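Fold these two proteins, one after the other.
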Amino acid sequence: MRWLKFAAAGKTSWGIVKGDHVIAVSGDPFGEWQRSQQAHVLKDVKIELPLVPRTFYCVGLNYLSI
């Protein structure tokens, strides 16, 4: 079973990939979930990052030394 987080029709949700389709899921893969009746063609959805980090660090090493 392949999971992905995707955006389609202005809504982001989790889904299960079946062939060239994505079946939308209510819930998430880390808890309780249930398949919905909504399905999308895989090429028509935008694949999103599966997890959002709580903290994001950036290091600026490209500044000019004066």
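Now the second one:
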Amino acid sequence: MGGILDPAVAFGKVLRLLRSEVGLTQEQLGFEADLRRTYVSILELGQQQPSLTTILKLAKALNCTAAALMEKVETEIGRAKRRK
């Protein structure tokens, strides 16, 4: 992709980091966000892009705003761009 981190992969990295920071398992995050643990895993692996509804649910479960979550994703993409 020419030095640009795939957005789904960036989202997954950020999601995994934030989940770890708040001390939740994938199962717990799934419960709090009303999502299946397997879907949380798929998102963390960057295998699928989340819908806006999912982003909002995850942000609430992680005690942050959707804007803050997406800002971290954008930062991660920018980091990857600078590394290339």
